Amino acid sequence: MDSAQITISIILLCTVLLFLWGRWRHDMVAAAALLACVITGLVPADSAFDGISHPAVISVACVLILSKGLQNSGAVDVLTRLCLPTNAGPTLSIAALTALGAFLSAFMNNVGALALLMPVAMQMARRQQIPTGKVLMPLSFGTILGGMTTLIGTPPNLIVSGFRQANGDGNFSMFDFTPVGLAVAGVGVAFVALIGWRLVPGRKQAGADSFDSGAYITEARVPEGSKAVGMTLHDIELALTEADAQVLGLVRNEVRVTPPSPRRRTRAGDILMLEAEAETLSSALSSLGLKLEEAKATRDEREKQEKEKEKEKEKEKQAKEKTNEQNAKTPAAKAQASKPQASKAQEPADIASVAKADTDSAKAETSVDSSADNDEIILSELVVLPSSSLLGRTAAGIQIRTSFGVNLLAISRQGNRSVKRLRAQPFRAGDLLMVQGGPEAISEFASSTGCVPLAERELRIPNKRMAIMATIIMGASVAIAALGILPTAVAFAAGVLASMIVRTVPPRAVYNAVDWPVIILLGALIPVAQAMESSGTAGLIANVLLNQLAQGHAVVALVLILVVTMNLSDLMNNAATAAVMCPIAIGTANQLGVNVDPFLMAVAVGASCAFLTPIGHQNNTLILGPGGFKFGDYWRLGLPLDLLVILVSIPMLLWVWPL
Fold first, then answer.
1. Contact 86/98 with Cβ under 8 angstroms?
2. Cα 110 off chain centre by
3. Virtual torsion, Cα 637, 639, 640, 644, nearest 10 deg
4. How far apart are CA 600 and CA 173, in angstroms?
5. Per-residue pLDDT reduced to its tens digit, 46-105
6. Is 435 within 8 Å of 382 (Cβ atoms)?
7. pTM, rounded to two decimals
8. What backbone torsions phi and psi does residue 44 show, to the nearest 5 degrees?
């Protein structure tokens, strides 16, 4: 070994140890490794940050943004409602949910796919009366398996494709991963859903006794063309059962019908008072095509508010006239000299004042609507504090829409139900308010009225037009990349630009959708991996594997690459694992004189098989608390699944990508 090989080996060993230690974040470790390579001269300083512009890194960032558009628009909610069975046993329900998670993660970020389906999984567990973890772990593993089926399904696939291009063989196409990935994912999902979920230990959900926000009471309007038009309230109740929602009342022509008869049929324009959890509110609305009713004032209330404004204007005018009369008592010569000029100046000023007041009034009525064109509209949950100025007041009374530019969409009041309309319910300490508006408007409303936001959680109200647009943009990006019309990174970058233009992802939210630690990790490790290859270290490691373990057998070497990658992926980030193992896989294939592709594909499969620990993949970490799992719980399902992956993938690799 020469000095360069010794140096890069020490840096690589320290990097892996720091990844395993877990004290520092992955991107910090990767950045340290890159800087060490630059300082020691292994990576030229002028090309140290070329990894950030690597097509694989750009593609990962763009896929994350497009996935956010699918999340925000409610497109996945519609697919969930169509694909999941409503009346089935635990095995069929888990199978359908896991298969849906795998399908979604093939075309969007698998962490996003899991986050979208977690509330559905927890609701399913309650309905089936089984521990939450027995649904969450199969779902997590299903989304991980689904990611290996397409180029954009998971970052390791893009990394592998980039190394193939650097090796002079060109990129992998969109569906080159599908034959092997689909076989592995299909068998894996079937095992997890039919048998594997029974191996998951049933534990109590962490934090189950903690604060519960309770169900929200909200008003939903039945628009023209809604499925609910003509349905009886009883039929609507049955349709909302899946979302754990119920009808509390009906408002027709501004009159509340109490109690509503189950046989009463709804009409377009009716308002249904619903009770639902925040997580299932989106599903309840989209299942029947309902729209949230904003808590704004009625015509009578608006007229009353206008009269009060007119009285205030009249008082101001009288005060101004009184001031002018007092000024008129000054000496006659001064009065005569200034009177014509004052009257001329005062007239346009008064007209301008009235016009401005009218304009301000009109602008206030549309403050939320107009902000949609210029700002991001979000949903937020606020708690009314005991010292809040809202206590005893109503949404209509404080003119919440005109004064603050926010809409009150729902109220949660644990243990109490009110027969009053949403806008007429007096606020109480401890109430939870679901409000809609711009971030600044909601922040100002909270601070000025004495409310505090809850810990952030994902709240979505389905938007049919946005859901269609987000789906079209994602589908078009995938098709353009798959057909080779544009390079993958360019195709998805164009999709991001289209998403910003049509606002499926608001421009201000684009950068928040990117997982920047992953981007920095990839951008930093790509030059390090290239240094491994250029220094001959990757070939040296491959030679050790071949001579000491594989004994020159290509199939044994292929199994070793797969198994080593799988074990590394259980302990460190999967993208980092792919970046480290790709040069070794290429070096192994070159020394054997065989096709590089099966070895790169083995790295892609192995990097997507982090099933033994909660730290190997973000999805496993996400379910750790909600499932009540311990560190040692994952191997019970993960170990047999790993063995199954090896048994299926090796023959498929040899068949699809011959040596």
1. no
2. 10
3. 120
4. 14
5. 888 888 888 878 887 888 888 788 777 777 777 777 777 767 788 888 898 899 889 988
6. yes
7. 0.62
8. -60, 140
